[in-house]
Design goal:
alpha+beta, 20% helix, EC 2.1.2.10, single chain, aminomethyltransferase, methyltransferase activity
């Protein structure tokens, strides 16, 4: 869950509370989601990627939007905007969600956490946050209180040593398991942490008052296991984990089923579930789910479900970038790449993209047209690198 970059001029760019720290650390700053953000530090993208895989990387993701939905009806109201189960999410747990438009297109992907006592904490993508908050307010603002948190920062500590680091500074935090969290004190700094992240590694996302963000970041960076990591390595890590980047891999032209995010739609919201439908675009999304289910049994309805998001591996050592056309070996256009690079850990060219449903089975061969020349690729299962979430 991330937001694609925009073309804002330097004069218009916003700064996170950690901007001065990034500059002090020698980061190369770039425009991203309306902010000036660190794409990499002097060590470079490859070193940052590998350090996150081996130890603990600290990411500034304060460009993302944070808000609370408060009120006895908040969960039921929020559920009307998404094809996921909000009502039954237990207190203390987090879930991935998808805001949809009336055509079933994805307005944004997000994370939400049940704080209990009628309070839901939500994190949305930076480039979408203004529109998201306005959309939520307009749709359910009469049923619950929508409280944006613009003065909060968000940090992510990711990697196999992240729990060791935080347990040293916040004893007990290591008891959280994947997609759980709560209020904590980290080195005496009040914060809200969840055991989650967008790298495929174990780790934590930490919401903190903006005025305390610099002190918290410096405290974490003072730990021997931790180094700063920029958006470049965050992108390579999330792609190896098979995770979508909003604006590249999913957007308003893609539905959850086309995006192969069926797992994010709980049974209770599907056809035959006790709270079937009732979300924007439900007729289309549920029809596509039925087609996908039939496809798993060998009877795919290609008219209802025309394309799917898939993983792709190049069979030659040639990176295949986003926007690249995909063809059948007969030369017919069948799709396009949405994200692609040479995976530092996978050690091969990897990509995600959309292909016609008939070409979406793992093992299917296709070709990418790179600078006018065909590069053979094979549809792959996701993730490209096994995830290491801590589930207890």
């Amino acid at each position: 869950m991330a937001a694609s970059s925009d073309a804002s001029s330097a004069e218009q760019l916003l700064k996170t509370p950690l901007y001065d720290l990034h500059v002090e650390l020698g980061a190369r700053m770039v425009p991203f989601a309306g902010y000036s953000m660190p794409v990499q530090y002097p060590a470079g993208l490859m070193a940052e990627h590998r350090h996150t895989r081996d130890a603990a990387g600290l990411f500034d993701i304060s460009h993302m939007g944070q808000l609370r939905l408060v009120g006895a009806d908040a969960a039921a109201a929020f559920e009307t905007l998404m094809p996921v189960d909000v009502i039954d999410l237990p207190a203390g747990k987090q879930r991935y969600g998808l805001l949809l438009n009336d055509e079933g297109g994805i307005l944004d992907d997000l994370m939400f956490f049940n704080e209990g006592h009628g309070s839901i904490f939500v994190i949305v993508n930076g480039a979408c946050k203004v529109a998201d908050i306005a959309h939520i307010q307009q749709k359910i603002g009469e049923r619950c209180e929508v409280q944006p948190l613009p003065d909060h920062a968000l940090l992510a500590l990711q990697g196999p040593q992240a729990a060791t680091v935080l347990a040293r500074l916040s004893p007990g935090i290591e008891r959280f398991v994947f997609m759980t969290g709560g209020a904590v004190q980290i080195g005496g700094i009040p914060a809200f942490a969840t055991r989650s992240g967008y790298t495929g590694e174990d780790g934590f996302e930490i919401s903190v008052a903006g005025q305390n963000a610099d002190a918290l970041a410096r405290l974490l960076l003072a730990q021997p296991e931790v180094k700063p990591v920029g958006l470049g390595a965050r992108n390579s890590l999330r792609l190896e984990a098979g995770l979508c980047l909003y604006g590249n891999d999913i957007d308003t032209t893609t539905t959850p089923v086309e995006a192969s995010l069926n797992w994010a739609i709980q049974k209770v919201r599907r056809t035959g579930g006790t709270r079937e439908g009732g979300f924007p675009g439900a007729a289309k999304v549920l029809a596509q789910l039925a087609a996908a289910t039939a496809g798993a049994a060998g009877h795919t309805d290609h008219d209802t479900l025309k394309r799917r998001r898939v993983g792709l591996v190049a069979l030659e050592r040639i990176p295949v970038r986003d926007g690249t056309v995909l063809q059948s070996f007969e030369g017919h256009d069948i799709g396009f790449v949405t994200s692609g690079l040479l995976g530092p850990t996978a050690d091969r060219p990897i990509a995600m993209g959309y292909v016609a449903t008939a070409f979406s089975e793992p093992g299917t061969r296709v070709q990418a047209i790179v600078r006018g020349k065909p590069v053979p690729m094979e549809v792959s299962t996701l993730p490209f690198v096994p995830t290491r979430y801590y589930r207890g």
